Amino acid sequence: MAEKVIRVDDIDGSEGGDVTKRDFEVLDRTFTIDLSDDNHRRLTEALELVGGFVAKAVEVKAAGRGRKSAAPAKVKGYTNNDVREWANGNGVEVSERGKIADEVYAAFIEAHPDAKPGV
User: Fold this and answer.
1) Are the beta carbons of 116 and 110 closer than 8 angstroms?
2) Which residues form the Lsr2 DNA-binding domain (predicted)?
3) What are the pLDDT digits (tens) for 12-28?
């Protein structure tokens, strides 16, 4: 049994012998689309027009979220993680992340004679 494939132009819905898959590139990405010869010509002209603008333009990079550095500990010689571990081990309530209360730092310093108040 024979089958007949009818390609339909993705832009105007026309059918015809000249409709075929057409590959094209935009900004180093390859796309494919079914187009008639006429719509393929229009696409090629449009890409050439846009290409002229792109060639003269400067790419704008998306703003990054940046790398957020960990907040410095308020105790010299110890990290905030050290303070949290001590607090959890000694029944002092402290959040897993975020700001550590000044009272927690004060209790940590009191429990650690070598600890000195930091920043």
Assistant:
1) no
2) 78-111
3) 999 989 999 999 998 88
Task: Dump pLDDT digits (tens) for 57-107.
Answer: 998 888 876 655 555 667 778 888 889 999 999 988 888 888 888 888 888
pTM of the model: 0.49
Alpha carbon distance 99, 80 (integer Å): 9
Which residues neighbour 7 within 8 Å (Cβ) at sequence distance 6 or greater?
15, 19, 20, 21, 34
Residue with tokens 């990079």: 61
Residue type, 92: V
Within 10 A of 86 (CB to CB), how many other CB atoms are there? 19
* Number of domains observed in the structure of the chain: 2
Kindly report the CATH number assigned to the domain that includes residue 5.
3.30.60.230
